[in-house]
Structure formats: C-alpha cells, structure tokens
Design a protein that fits this description.
Elements: H1 6-16, H2 32-37, E1 41-43, E2 49-60, E3 63-74, E4 77-84, H3 91-97, E5 106-110, E6 116-121, E7 126-131, E8 140-148, H4 159-170, E9 172-174, H5 176-183, H6 188-200
Antiparallel strand pairs: 1-2, 2-3, 3-4, 4-8, 5-6, 5-9, 6-7, 7-8
Length: about 200
C-alpha cells in the first residue's frame, strides 16, 4: 500500500483546519469502531472526551517516517484530529509548499527567546514549532498539528477554544514589526520564518 505523503497531510490541515479525509492516513472513517479495530490506544472516560492515538507511517522525501496520529471523539462524535511529529519536518518547507494556497488569517506566537512558538489560524488550526535542539539553532521544525472542527450546536466542548487558549498561555503574540526586531538579533530560525510568512500574506 502506498504510504501517505506527510507534506500533503499537513497541507490538508492548512486547507480546512483539520484533516477531513480519513483515507489520507489509511483509515475508512474517524469512528470508534474503525479506530478500535486498527489498534489505536484509547484514552479517556467512556462518557467524556476520548483520545485515540496510534503511530502511523508516512512518506517524506523518499523515506518512511512515523508520526503519532490522534483523533478526538466525544460519545462517538468527531471533534478533531492532530499529529505529533517530533523534529522531522521543517516548518519553512511546509509554508513553502503552501504558497498559492488560500490560507485564512493567522497570528504568530513565540516564547521570549523565540525557541518555540505557534501559528494560530482563524479556521482553528494550531501549528506548534520549535528550533532544532542540537547545535546552533538554524530552523524551526513543525512539532504538533492540532486541528478541530467548529463547536457542534448541542455540545459544551470547544476543542478549538481550548487548543488556542493553551497556546496563548505558553507564548506571547508578536506583531510583524516586533518579529522583525527579534530577527535582527541574529536568530536564524526566526529570520527564515519571517521570510516564508511574508510570501504567504
């Protein structure tokens, strides 16, 4: 079976705010029966929000990589999905691949030292990123993708609000002028990010 391309999966998140097509990760549906049958770990109380998680294989630049794929269900209802990527996909490469794609507005959040951050998109997607841990920081890597559907009419659960509130607690929001000032201090990953973001706007 042909493995899904990791870049294509992330671009699908950028397009819709969550991954709509289960076939992109080798599934028929995002329902409980399918996920349980495929061996996903199931975490959470039966009557609450349940996390289904499993390592999935993807293609990236001619080789096979693994990422943790997550699905959130509440009493059988789909609320969102995401990826835990580790340090194997450069953020700049993802943004470069997204050029020409109509993206919703977003804001940039960073830690004070610009070592970690997140992009928060108006359609609910949150992309967490971090600078390489070893050696001189040169690039940001996309580490976590959090995609969630809009709040269902009769549900009190709003994963989008929770995910964005969590990012707001971790980081501070920076306006473009502030980002430029930070980049002038010699932070190579931030300079690279600003270059790619300017080509998207």
């Amino acid at each position: 079976m042909l493995l899904p391309d990791l870049h294509a999966v992330v671009l699908a998140y950028l397009a819709d705010g969550w991954l709509r097509d289960p076939a992109m990760v080798g599934l028929r549906t995002f329902g409980h029966a399918e996920l349980a049958a495929r061996g996903f770990d199931i975490i959470g109380p039966p009557q609450g929000l349940i996390l289904y998680e499993e390592q999935r294989r993807f293609r990236r630049a001619g080789r096979v990589v693994q990422a943790s794929f997550k699905v959130f269900l509440e009493q059988g209802r789909f609320h969102g999905n995401g990826l835990d990527l580790g340090y194997q996909l450069r953020l700049a490469g993802v943004l470069r691949a997204a050029r020409g794609q109509a993206l919703p507005p977003f804001k940039v959040l960073l830690r004070r030292d610009a070592s970690w951050g997140a992009l928060l998109f108006d359609h609910g997607l949150v992309l967490h990123f971090a600078a390489n841990l070893r050696g001189t920081p040169r690039h940001y890597f996309l580490t976590i993708v959090e995609g969630s559907v809009p709040t269902l009419p009769d549900s009190e659960l709003d994963l989008r609000a929770a995910s964005q509130a969590h990012a707001d607690l971790l980081y501070a929001t920076y306006a473009p002028a502030e980002l430029q000032r930070l980049a002038h201090r010699g932070h190579a990953p931030l300079r690279e990010l600003i270059r790619e973001l300017s080509s998207l706007r």
